[in-house]
Design a protein that fits this description.
Length: 426
Amino acid sequence: MIDLKLLRENPNAIRTAAAAKNVTLDVDRIVELDRKVRSLKGEIEAIAAQKNEVSKRIPTASKEERTAMIEEMRHVDARAEKLAEEFAPLDEELSDLLYKIPNPPLADVTVGKSDEENSVLREEGTVPTFDFDVKDHATLAEHLGIVDLARATKASGARFGYILGDGALLQLALTQYALTVAAKHGFVPVFVPHLVTAQAMRAMGYLEHGGSDEIYHLAKDNQYLIGTSEQAIGPMHMDEIIALDEPLRYIGISPCYRREAGSYGKDTKGFIRMHQFDKVEMFSFCKPEESAKEHEMILGIEEELMQGLGLPYHVLNIVSGDLGLPAAKKWDIEAWFPAQNRYRETHSTSNCTDFQARRLNTRYRPSTDGGQGGTTAFVHTVNGTAFAIGRTIAAILENFQHADGSVRIPDVLHPLMGKKILTQKQ
């Protein structure tokens, strides 16, 4: 949720931000509702104060005075009831519209309509060349016996997979590698709940403007399966005032569940777009003046992880129209996939400023007295992928394949895997 002060003082800034993110908003209606709701709320509070004052006077009043006061309160109660009936639907409409206002892009974000306008900041690593016909990751995985998509389809339907043997060991090795690197920067490992409440998911900014189409909803319980551990880490400190002597950093380990709505017909072969996959995700709570630096640090960790694996990649600067509702600034990393002769997304990192924190009511004390007193302010939240495991395995298979279908394991994973090469199942 945005700062209402900005809406009231500069509604054009909200119009501009929404347009930059391709979001249609009736800002005039929001401003009008805000004015009406504040006016009605003021009247309701004034009546409550009046009733409270009269209730204090009644015990010492004469019989005649009490009768007059009680009669007066009947009229006041009728007025209060009418105001409440008028207030409730307007307040609900305003709340729904406020939740649909996107986080304004930061000033240095390029305005653009879609991902086609994202720009490459830099390329790292050497794109491999092969003297044989390269195989795609799905063919290699089947050859190696590390993923079984066919049997998973029987059990669960399309876009699910069993990860077997060396595939499971590789997944665990990537997870441990990510945790080890992130720990150097103060990230605390956390296994998160896979279900969050509707309140928590909405607060994180994933239910408006079609976002719910991507998420699995358990209607009977009104809970959502997480699409990333970010959606469970953010609500950890909902309605709290947290100490922020330094950024509070978590690295979540979890499956991710996504409907992949609208993706049917895309990436049908392999495991690029799965309904369930595992991911290691970084998440930081920090002071507003620290979030830009924190964002850069998380991108640096992502690049350190990719360089450690030896995977060629490039970094993308994301335009406003591709940011999504919560993000104010975002970078993506795309790894090179030889079989597709193109880069594909493996990482993203977003600075969500105070957008999620306002909806979560997560605050800190910016005072200079050790955070023990003074007013509170909303924290900033920053998130970033350590590894989306399935896509990372796919990139490893394609980039480090040999002519016989074996695959070289990145050097940093050798101690964790206990082997240096993946070979065909016997």
